Request: fold
Amino acid sequence: MERVEGKKGLTLIEVIVASTIFSILMFAILYATFLSSSYYKGHQKESRAQAEASFLMHHLSRYLSKAIAIDWPAETESLEDVQITIDNYTGSGYPSSFPASPIKVRYARINNTVQFGEDPSCPATVNLTETIVYNITEFNITRPDDAGQGISFQVNITATDPQTGESFSLSSRITSRCMPWRNP
Reply:
């Protein structure tokens, strides 16, 4: 095929080579985007279980650090349903003659959710009023030093992503900061 003088343009071979190079570059860019998106989604699922376990541990720490008593369930009941009496006093040091200002909170794991309730009037049983986390497959609180005056708790939490089945566990020992003369 001969070129006509004065006419400028691309030959068929130049168009095919340019299209091939462009297609290879687009494929590489799309493949890199797909890999980074699947990597992100995988970590997002893992971080969801971590975030739920961390949130629950933070929530528990907030109340257990002020605990003056735990109403342990009967032996036939699960350790995943506990009621905590906390010292709600927020001022500086005070003598033991001051009246207690306790409130009660309750945590219960029901069908992989942890539900929470709080009652400032300190009734015998606190009603669960809100679900605070989902996908918690294990949750328990134990008190390893029952014999002494020190109030310390071992908390174990496992969150499992229902789609991937990946689990994340947290375990922590939390010691009460409440004043010793306030312990019942």
Summary: The chain is about 30% helix and 30% strand. The CA atoms of residues 92 and 179 lie 10 Å apart. Confidence is low (pLDDT under 50) at residues 180-184. Residues 40-182 form one domain.
